[in-house]
Write a structure and sequence with these properties.
The chain has 3 domains: 63 residues, no CATH class; 37 residues, no CATH class; 44 residues, no CATH class. The protein has 8 helices and no strands. The chain is flat, with a radius of gyration of 42 Å.
């Protein structure tokens, strides 16, 4: 016996013997309709559902601290607005109170230092120093390699080396040794650029 539909256009058939879905296509259709939408919202719903199932509804994964506000927030005088001479209070001096408060605050050495500067600046400074030291060392070694290109150049004066490059100088043993070595070095340096 079929039940009467609750609203027009809807009919409820219970011929599946207690199963939630009548067929595989019906299951896929319902799941696609359920999962249609923004992936962020769907993900948040899954996470909240899993959290409630696994841990409990009243448990939070990220602890929340409801701490009292610092007393300075309650007792610190606010900067008074500009007032006409007639509007100034008779027995109070809000401008002087605020001025005294600011002077006392400036006496504290860490009053204007930002918290991030206190914690991040030393680490960033040490990293920058180590990077600059390593770059400086690399440049020094590269310069030594450039200057130290050949063991014969190390001990020869510049005039002898220029003489070896000169084409008018004969084919001496010295020229035969230095010239190919310098050409190899020049080709290597051109390849680096």
């Amino acid at each position: 016996m079929e039940k009467e539909p609750v609203e027009e256009g809807l009919s409820f058939k219970h011929d599946t013997d207690g199963a939630l879905f009548g067929s595989q296509e019906h299951f896929k259709k319902e799941m696609s309709r359920l999962c249609y939408g923004d992936l962020y919202v769907i993900g948040r719903l899954w996470i909240q559902g899993l959290r409630k199932v696994l841990v409990g509804a009243n448990f939070s994964l990220i602890p929340v601290v409801h701490a009292a506000k610092p007393l300075e927030m309650f007792f610190a005088p606010k900067k008074p607005p500009k007032m006409k001479y007639k509007d100034l209070p008779l027995y109070e001096s809000p401008h002087y109170e605020y001025k005294d408060y600011m002077e006392d605050k400036k006496k504290c050495p860490k009053a204007n230092v930002k918290i991030l500067h206190t914690y991040l600046f030393p680490k960033v400074q040490s990293y920058r120093k180590s990077w600059s030291d390593s770059i400086r060392g690399f440049n020094k070694e590269a310069k030594e390699l450039k200057d130290d290109g050949s063991p014969t150049r190390r001990f020869l004066p510049e005039s002898k080396i220029k003489e070896a490059y000169d084409k008018k100088a004969g084919e001496s043993d010295f020229t035969k040794c230095i010239l190919p070595e310098s050409k190899i070095k020049d080709a290597y340096n051109k390849g680096k650029k």
